[in-house]
Specification:
Elements (H helix, E strand, L loop, with lengths): L6 E3 L2 H5 L3 H8 L3 E5 L3 E10 L7 H11 L6 E7 L2 H5 L27 H16 L3 E8 L6 E4 L4 H7 L5 E4 L7 H4 L6 E8 L3 H16 L9 E4 L2 E5 L5 E4 L8 E4 L15 E5 L7 E4 L7 H4 E4 L2 E4 L3 E4 L5 H6 L3 E5 L7
Parallel strand pairs: 1-2, 3-4, 3-5, 5-8, 6-7, 7-9, 11-12
Antiparallel strand pairs: 2-4, 6-8, 10-14, 10-18, 12-13, 13-16, 15-16, 17-18
Helix pairs in contact: 3-8
Bound molecules: zinc ion (ZN).
Length: 340
Amino acid sequence: MSDARIRGVAAQSARAAEDVTGWLAAAGGPLRVDVPGIDDARVRIVTTLLHGNEPSGVRALHRWLRARPRPATRMVAFVLSVEAALGPPPFAQRARRGARDLNRCFGGAADADAESALAAELLRQVRELEPEAVVDIHNTSARGPAYAVVTRDDPARRALTTQFASRMVVTDLRLGALIEALEDEVPAVVIECGGASDPDADSVALAGLERLASAPAIVSGPVTVLHHPRRVELDPGARLAYAAGPGGNADVTLDADIGRHNFGPAPAGTRLGWLGPRGLAPIRVRAGDGRELRDELLETSGGELRLRRDTQLLMATADVAIATSDCLFYAIPIDAGGEP
Ligand SMILES: [Zn+2]
């Protein structure tokens, strides 16, 4: 078990390392960078690489630091799952091998494991800084447009969102994520920049970071707000496959190209895949208030898995490991009036 140390590194360490993996390798573990601002009494925080296979945030940070920035406020950046990110291969593992997902460890006991201890140490340092904003930069596994995830809809969170994206998803699901732990203390948002291997996502992260850092006041642009995603999960032990058609022996076979529906929206009747002999039984659809909403969202006919109603899908991925260990996708039903 590694300890929960977050190593402070100088901003010039990013200039000494030409590529981002070299910079991370030199740090060797979780790191923190402090950059003085024009108004040094105010602090904005960026966290990234909570998931080791989501590199856009740390790539943006590395490039931003190499440009010798002079931000409007003091900026403090935390880069967390460095060990997982270094691989090999780099940026392929979500968490350290055999360890829990760090961004599910912000709700429980600090001494449960190394991930909980690191989560607790990050929270301690964030609170000590008394920041005016926290932005946690992630990638999705499939391609798709950038969006924010927040636990509350308020002007401060809308303004943070629009430094990076024009869509904001307000979630009432509780997973043990960083933004949940901070929600009563500071406007905290997750930015999903787009697909982890998509160069556009790196550009979204860098442009957003530059806006966030340079603005004396964070002002909101136009934003589309989506409420209450449902989390679509597979029962533990159920077999999942991705294919272009039926015929396998999995319990659930999702369309290998399901990611194309992300932020579709996908109309009622859209086929998402095919079901085994147990039908819909291995699938759970969980709302933030704990209700089971599978039969409201999904239906089966002729062995096909279909949407029962018009829906926005989020984070649909063809990565079996992520889909089975985390969730298949998120779904936001769209009402008859067109408002999600
Ligand atoms: Zn993530």
